[in-house]
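Checklist before submission:
- one chain only
- standard amino acids only
- sequence pasted in full

Submission:
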Amino acid sequence: MAGMTPGNEKKDMFTGGTNADFKKALNKVYAWYTGGFIAFVIVIAIAEQMGMTRAMIGYLFLGATVLLYAGIGVMSRTTDAAEYYVAGRRVPAMYNGMATGADWMSAASFIGMAGTLYLTGYGGLAFIMGWTGGYCLVALFLAPYLRKFGQFTIPDFLGARYDGNLPRFIGVFAAILCSFTYVVAQIYGVGLITTRLADVPFEFGIFIGLGGILVCSFLGGMRAVTWTQVAQYIILIIAYMIPVVWLSVKQTGNPIPQLIYGYQLEKVTAKEAELIKDPKELEVRAIFKARADAFTEKLKDVPAALAADKAAAEKKVADLKAANAPAPEIAAAEKALAAVPKDEAAAKKAWTAARTGADNRSKPLANMPRHGAQFAGDPNGDEKAKTAFDTSRRNFLALIFCLMVGTAALPHILMRFYTTPSVKQARESVTWSLFFIFLLYFTAPALAVLVKYEIFTVLVGTPIDQLPGWIAQWGRVDPTLLSVTDVNKDGIFQLAEMTIGGDIIVLATPEIGGLPYVISGMVAAGGLAAALSTADGLLLTIANALSHDVYYKMINPNAPASTRVMISKVLLLVVALAAAYVAAQKPADILFLVSAAFSFAAAAFFPALVLGIFWKRATKAGACVGMIGGLGITMYYMVMTQAWLRGIFGVTSPVELWYGILPISAGVFGVPVGFALIILVSLVTPAPRKEIQDLIDNVRYPTLRSDS
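Returned file contents:
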């Protein structure tokens, strides 16, 4: 019964009482918590002014946040199955919305969203529209019905609705695939942030953050994860908003960044026009164009070019030694010799990458589109421009579709709606989720424009030796994320001389705006909260699918609750270590990994869940064929067209895009295939038995109970 504490549970601040008393206690706890966090930041800010080092500030933020989450995990520890899997179904709608917001605000949202908007302008809005639009689908088609079904996992629903273990097993496979892909991205984000906070190697930073992830989900399952995620949301939203408000005040005097977004965008657009024609920028771009052309020539005859490079490097070392040149010059020449590719395959790979990089930087605005330009190409231009415009628009719409449908089908998000006391509160919690997500997403476009204005107007034109320290510091964290090289040797910074990755835009915003380092530490703590909260939910989804759906439902139905929970904990540890290992390889950028998960979830789950709820005629055979077919076509398209996956699977055939759709939107093919297969196969196979159709009626239609 909602609101009651299981008899074997120790009573603490997260259990007990009626729903009203429980909510009142939560309000008090989190009000004190918010005040305490703000006081902590103020104390650290005062200590910084008194001489506390940046390293110590980083250690304090890292240690305090991880210990806080660990403390909640310890207080919420449980072995009760209902508590472990669905937090005892007592989470009030507002708090479930806040926890869902934190679960949702992954490293991609917190770290990558504004960075994507910075690099792609208007095109990045597809992520915001797709992700938020997905919650409308959740509210309309899935959340209330799954809550009324009332079990623990999404494969649970598939197994019951489609009458067998095969649909359940396919659901488990798909849940693990999309959740593992997603969690690798979160752990990558954890490593990036921990490295910045504690100045430790990336791989080591991953395992420090992993400890914070495991202590919550391992000890208390969904119960610990839920209350930790509420705490994490409070940290991440405060951390996200403060630097943006500061930049807004600094640039315009207005503390509401969303209101001055259009005003600053006009200024950025005007500055873009200046930079495109700027003589110094043209000079740097010409140098990169010459480099790209040189690599193109080398690639025409790789063996000859490699032999020439090696001979030239060896000759330079020999000449310097013969002339008794200074040791640093000889060391530099020897380093250049060591950098010559070892063989033809390595040379081809290195020179192709270098040519692409140089070619990109030879384009206007360091290969960024104009921020306000809707799509590439021109609908009124020549045939090539029209084709580019149509393809760009098609990809924009395809990405929105995949993100919307994928959001509505992500297992770790749908699991959250099992935790509310009633169906009514499940609906309400979707509304709260949208509100808490809106706070960040409504701010991200303004953040991207404010940072771009700062870089275009303050940094560009600054002497290289007077650039702010954060540029060198981030370059040490990862040179692929940020590097500045004085290409034309004029001692002045031009835009084309900087390589910047979207993943650091938010983390570097306080330093870009000239704020004290304490705010940088707080933003990094917010990013850590975002990555940890999502990783917790994802790892729990994978472990629960294996322990509950595979072990309990398919292998040992008589297993006691304590055994199931223990197996879930062991599996959670194994999956977490595997994900950390993959993340340590830095497999691909955060946003692609996350978006791939959305396409997988969309193709595998959305057709089967929606038809399972709204069409009684959908059969077991139809669901199995539809899930396999939809997921299969999505995976096939990604493997054949995405560069990183092509390398893993050894695909060498030419890339052929279907209708020009990029691999990030592969789900646009898988979803309709899934719907079509389920419908067609269901129509030619026997209808589900009466008990299954009664289950659908029970899930679909309201009963006389007041909580429905």
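Reviewer check: The longest helix spans residues 202-252.
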